[in-house]
Amino acid sequence: MAKKLGVGVIGCGNISKAYFSLAPLFRGIKMRACADLNMDAAKARAKEFKLRAETVDDLLKDDEIDIVVNLTIPAVHYEVSKAVLDAGKHVYSEKPFVLSIEEGLDLKKRAEKKGLRIGSAPDTFFGGAHQLVRELIDSGKLGAITSGTCHVMGHGMEHWHPNPDFFFQPGAGPVLDIGPYYVTNLIQLIGPVKQVAAFATTPAKERTISSKPRAGEKIPVNTPTTIHALLEFANGAVITLNTSWDVWSHGHAPMELYGELGTVFVPDPNFFGGDVRFTDSAKPVKKLPKWNHPFGVLNEMHGQGMMANYRTAGLADMAVAITEGRPHRCSMELALHAVDVMTGILRSGESGKYVAMQTTCERPAALGIKAAKALLAKKN
Fold first, then answer.
1. Tens digits of per-residue pLDDT, 152-163?
2. So what's the pLDDT on residue 2?
3. Cα–Cα distance, 376 to 380 (Å, whole number)
4. I want to staple 345 with a disulfide (CB 3.0 to 4.6 A). Which of 30, 125, 198, 205 is the partner?
5. What is the pTM of this model?
6. Cα–Cα distance measured from residue 239 to residue 113, given in angstroms and rounded to the nearest whole number
C-alpha cells in the first residue's frame, strides 16, 4: 500500500470544511488532527470529521503529523508557517502564501535547511477546464500568447461571510484574496511575469455587513478595493487584470487569452470546471467538448446546480511528490512569484510607478488526465 502522510490543520474556519470533506478523494494523505486558537472551533470540526482536536503546540509536536495545512488568516500565514517548519514538518498554506518577498525567502531558507517542502494554494489550476487550456497552449494551437484580459469584480464579502473584517485589511483586498487564482493560472499558462503597473483606489472607507449574525455592523476598509493592473510577462505577453469589490454587475469574461493563431475564453480560475471556448483564427467561436479530465467532473452542489470542486488536490500532489521524490506543482517558487506579482501591483498602485519582479519561477508541470487520475484514491 502506498504511504500516506499524516496531515494536521491549523485554522478551523470556513475553508477548513472543504479540506476535510474532500481529502478522502485523494491518495497519499490522511487527515489526523486539527487545531485553532479557539478550541471550541477545533473541537467542532474534529467531531464533524472524526479527527483529534489539539492545541497548536500539541499539533506541532504530534509525531503522526507529517504535513501541516495553514488555514489561518493571511496576516499570520508567515508566523504560523515558520513555526511549522521549525517544528520539522512540511507546510501547505492557503493563499496568499505570505505577504512579502522577505517572508517567503525566509521560509524557503528554513525549509531548505531541514529538507522540508512548502506548498501553497490555489490548486484550482489543476481543474479540467484550466488544464484543457494548458493543453491548447502547449500544443501550439493558439500560437504564442501575445495579450489578454482578466476581470474579477463583485461587491465584496460583507454580503455573505459571517466575519468579513479581514477581507478589507492589508493582506487581503481583491488582489491578494481573489487575485491568487487568476495570477497563478496565468503563470501556469504563460510563464513568469517581468513587471507590473497599476492604479488603485478605495471608494468606500467603511462597509456595512449584511450577512448574519452581524448584519448592520460597520467595518473599516484599510486596503484598496479597486485595482486595475497591467502585467508584462517574460515571454512578451501583456495582460490586463482588473479586480474590484466596488462593482455590482458587469459583462466581462473572467479571462481571455489572445494568441497568434486564435483566442481562448478561460472560465473563472476560482473554480476547477467551466466551459472553454476557442476561436481558430477567424472561424466562429466554439465551445470545446468536455475533456475527460477527472478534475472537471461535477461533484458538488453550488447554488442551483453542480460544480467541480477538488480543493486539496494540491496538498495531495505535494504529499505524493514527497514520497516519489519529484517536484510538486503548487510549489513555493510558484506561490512566491505570485505574491511578488500581487504585492508589486499594490506597490505600483501606491507609487504610480512600474514595479519589476524580484523573483521568477518555472511553469508547474501540466496535470493531464493520467496524472490527475494518479492522485485519486483507488475507490474513485
1. 999 999 999 888
2. 65
3. 6
4. 198
5. 0.95
6. 37
